[in-house]
Amino acid sequence: NAGVTQTPKFQVLKTGQSMTLQCAQDMNHNSMYWYRQDPGMGLRLIYYSASEGTTDKGEVPNGYNVSRLNKREFSLRLESAAPSQTSVYFCASSAGGAGANYGYTFGSGTRLTVV
Amino acid sequence: DQQVKQNSPSLSVQEGRISILNCDYTNSMFDYFLWYKKYPAEGPTFLISISSIKDKNEDGRFTVFLNKSAKHLSLHIVPSQPGDSAVYFCAASGGSYIPTFGRGTSLIVHP
């Protein structure tokens, strides 16, 4: 039972490079989320997808784009990486829609460094 | 402005004693509250939750208390064990609100 799988686990980018973080869940969850975790800042929502075919901005969307490819997969793209995007990125999924009272299942994270 | 606040960045407790982690929220529309536990290099994992219709929820060594009038909740761990050493995140949700997380409290349980 894999749960939420994120790839890659580690990545180093040069400023200006682009990359896509991949996330897949096998729990048939409706909603998927991307968070970033920075020291002292907790978990901040970047984008979310309440259901297949919909995406919405979270608290810190600037510099990112997302694609809900199908019910299982939700990718996060950095078009032109900046040092301020150095962070640990977590993907999560939940059974309910946005705001529903369901717990999240998180992936193990992607540690991204932009130099 | 933070809607969910965990004002203690860290907490140190002796093994066997009680750990109390606190969380305050400002949005009265929140009606469901969750605690997550996070070990280094891992994703957060769900620990315990409470609905606003309750004031207490217990699961083994973990109990969450909710004081709606004060917009305050707390997580009690009794007895604390070294394996409980982790970062604990409080989260709140409700209505159309995406769950909002606090900044976390790092708990260290000393043997």
Discrete helix count of chain B: 0
| Secondary-structure element pattern of chain A, one letter each | EEEEEEEEEEE
User: What percent of the residues of chain A sit in helical stretches (DSSP H or I)?
Assistant: under 10%
- Give the oligomeric state of the chains in this entry, treating copies of one chain as homo and distinct chains as hetero: heterodimer
Q: What gyration radius of chain B follows from the Cα positions, in whole Å?
A: 13 Å
End-to-end distance of chain A: 36 Å
Cα distance spanning the termini of chain B: 38 Å
Largest sheet of chain A: 7 strands, mixed
What string, H for helix and E for strand, traces the elements of chain B in order? Answer: EEEEEEEEEEE
User: In percent, how helical is the residue content of chain B?
Assistant: under 10%
Give the low-confidence spans of chain B. Answer: none
Based on Cα principal axes, name the global outline of chain A.
globular
Radius of gyration of chain A: 13 Å
The tally of helices of chain A reads 0
DSSP strand count of chain A: 11
**Whole-number mean pLDDT of chain B:** 93
Mean pLDDT of chain A: 92
Q: Which chains have the largest interface?
A: A-B, 24 and 27 residues
What structural class do you assign from the helix and strand content of chain A? Answer: mainly beta
State the shape of chain B: globular
